[in-house]
Design a protein that fits this description.
Blueprint: E1 12-16, E2 19-24, E3 33-37, H1 48-56, E4 60-64, H2 82-100, E5 106-111, H3 113-122, E6 132-136, H4 148-160, E7 165-167, H5 172-175, H6 179-187, E8 194-196, H7 197-213, E9 221-226, H8 234-241, E10 247-252, H9 265-277
Parallel strand pairs: 3-4, 3-5, 5-6, 6-9, 9-10
Antiparallel strand pairs: 1-2, 2-4, 7-8
């Protein structure tokens, strides 16, 4: 598929483990399920077109607002420990298995900070047992120049004033070259433009962990990385991917940070569809609730 299909509305919305979630189901029996984790300072509602691509490929999708983002609880952009993100991430996988069945294929898809959460989980000593992962523009290092005094301030403040916030310096022109997508991002009241000191130090530690333990990641991974990303450093993504055994790295020339929102995102969606089509069968010992898959669900909070 080389076209951008436009957004699709969720089949249902729910609150799971205290977090806002959206579920998308294909017309027929799903081949499996994709768990979508969005980036920093945004929310899952920005992934309705990605979800459309996924359901067109015959898969179900579960997306959620990360704690401190969108319609989920928590102070904007703050987290006390990165492990809280990982606990929420695990809860979404449990919910996905309950939706689709314990042995169905599950793929993890993240963008930017969502890719960092995904990769940090996969590099853990006890990684999630899933089929594959797709990471877009992984936030594994900042390419944005951060003055040394701001980095020092963040480290000190993380201990003394962990909720201290500063402007995150993101510009919509750095996210995508698509003018309509830039306007949508500026008008989106669920997005925010600050970063807290504790989040910064926790995310930095997670980045270091992934770099140190990337060789633990054994499952197939697809990397969709904007060559001209001015936010998340593509060279760091390439360095980490080179240490992952079964990594398929796509260097997307001419694309910035939000590859799913770029002018030529149809190219990216084609690679996403290809990754779904070639996903291997799940491990026979995959954990989860053995109850039958759900073919439909009810909206509600």
């Amino acid at each position: 598929m080389n076209a951008a299909p436009g957004p699709v509305a969720p089949t249902s919305t729910q609150t799971i483990s205290g977090l806002y979630t959206e579920t998308f189901l294909p017309a027929g029996p799903p081949k499996g399920i994709v768990v979508i984790t969005h980036g920093y300072a945004e929310h899952c509602g920005r992934y309705h077109e990605v979800a459309h691509v996924i359901v067109q490929a015959g898969w179900a999708a579960l997306s959620y607002d990360v704690r401190g983002h969108g319609k989920s609880p928590g102070e904007r952009g703050y987290i006390d420990r990165f492990a809280i993100y990982l606990g929420d991430f695990a809860a979404m996988q449990v919910a996905a298995r309950q939706l689709i069945g314990a042995t169905a294929p599950m793929i993890l898809l993240g963008h930017s900070h969502g890719s960092l959460i995904t990769l940090r989980a996969l590099a853990d000593e006890r990684p999630p047992e899933v089929t594959a992962a797709i990471v877009a523009s992984p936030f594994l290092a900042l390419k944005l120049a951060v003055p040394g005094y701001q980095r020092m301030l963040a480290r000190v403040a993380s201990r003394l004033a962990p909720k201290l916030s500063q402007p995150n310096a993101l510009r919509v022109a750095d996210l995508t070259q698509d003018k309509q997508k830039q306007a949508e991002r500026l008008a989106d009241k669920l997005c925010f433009d600050i970063a807290t000191s504790r989040w910064f130090t926790e995310a930095s530690a997670a980045q270091d962990y992934v770099f140190a333990h990337a060789d633990r990641i054994k499952l197939p991974t697809t990397w969709l990385v904007g060559h001209d990303d001015p936010i998340a450093d593509p060279s760091r993504s390439q360095a980490v991917a080179s240490r992952v055994a079964d990594a398929k790295y796509h260097d997307l020339l001419g694309m910035k940070h939000e590859v799913f929102n770029e002018v030529e995102r149809g190219r990216v969606f084609a690679e996403l569809t290809q990754a779904l089509d070639v996903a291997p069968a799940p491990p026979s010992h995959a954990p989860g609730n053995a109850s039958g898959k759900v073919s439909g669900s009810t909206s509600g909070n």
